[in-house]
Amino acid sequence: MYLFTLLGNLLIMATIWRERSLHTPMYLFLCALSTSEILFTVAVTPRMLVDMLSTHHSISFVACASQMFFSFTFGFTHSFLLMIMGYDRYMAICHPLHYNVLMSTRDCARLVSWSWAGGSVMGMMLTLIVFHLTFCGSNKIHHFLCHVLSLLKLACGKETSSVTMGVILVCVTALMGCLFLIVLSYVFIVAAILRIPSAEGRHKTFSTCVSHLTIVIVHYGFASMIYLKPKGPRSMDSNTLMATTYTVFTPFLSPIIFSLRNKELKNAIKRTFHRTFCPSSS
Asked: Could you tell me the pTM of the whole model?
């Protein structure tokens, strides 16, 4: 699964790079999203695999802080990129005449840069806040990685509860803010699609949004279960399970969803395979 996640996202990036027909804002954002998926997987999964195969499960303070920073950075970057992809679909469908002007290559590169910068700032800020706490007692983390909620349970001191609430509030606000803007984009998109007279035209227009919508549902579905699920007697075990599923399956599903639901990308991947493995028949 780890290799499939890497190869699937690398295949999407290579296909977009080679196919001139895919040099559009939508696929530029998809390429940035695949890069985010790869880096997120590389930052977290190898350590998880090592711990599964080893009998000595330990991690240094610096490695734990680094793991949390990269998890936050790529997680928030992923959300920001999904929000930008929703904005891209809004501009393409609701303002097609101004699309090429407002979504130029320079503007798209600037939006991607802002997403990465925003994710990095959020990751650095939250990591510094968490690791400025005092940790006492047991140093055993009930998780497969340095997950923020599991780590906060080890902290002690008067400020621990307020920092915990602050970290959760920042995460939920950022995620829900991105989700609100995505939903708002699709409200205008659906309104514009309903004004298209032909059923075929409505179907063709909406089909350009299906892959993005599916990824949004998967991403925010798992994230909401982790951060918004009410606590219970087995909440620690269920949180670990949900975080594991989110970490492993979301990057795994993304290339599958985009390659199967996006006809243009699927055909481009087939052409890439054909040119690579059957060059004589081209």
From this structure: 0.84
